[in-house]
Amino acid sequence: MIKLVLSNLICFFIIIAIVNCSEKIYDNTDPNISMTAGVYLYKNQFLTGIIRSYIPALQETELASFRNGIQHGEYKVITRDGNLLQKMNYRNGKKEGFSKAWYHNGKLRAFGEFKEGEYINDRIDYFDNGQVASYEKYSETSKIQVVKKWYKNGKIYMNVSFKDDGSSYGLPGSKLCDPIKKTKEKELITK
Prior knowledge:
The chain is mainly β and 191 residues long. The protein has a domain at 22-92. The protein has helices at 2-21, 185-190; strands at residues 25-27, 33-36, 39-42, 45-46, 49-55, 60-67, 70-79, 84-91, 94-102, 108-115, 118-126, 132-138, 144-150, 156-162, 168-171. The longest helix is centred in the N-terminal third of the chain and has 20 residues, at 2-21.
């Protein structure tokens, strides 16, 4: 008898867990969705679930999770073919944890980490050929420490470090020129 009661309780809790884990999906065009003071409502109640937004010009779909009207949980952008273009998490309306973005060809586009909506640690952007386009280093308190930027050909054009007082040192930016090809004097005279 005790085994029967325990197995029924276990089944009950499993069913409750499955029902609670599946979030309702709302289309952003639903006229029952509204926003007041930055909080999303559904039929004048705090929205909990996923808002799906289709962007026709880009043929992309955004899926944003909400809890009690505030963005909370996973945020994704996918192509019409189902390829993932961006993934990040929110906690109580602020970006939290790792964020990644990809090009349509599947190569990594950007990588970063957030804490309470601010960048921390490393943030990297990539060109579509896979080379690093920019690198930023942040402290655990979101203060910028290093900025580096490259041209697509791999040449660095910015390399700046920041001190705690906000001052910086390094190469803040310059225009790199391709080297002038050497010419012989005779070629110059005959032209």
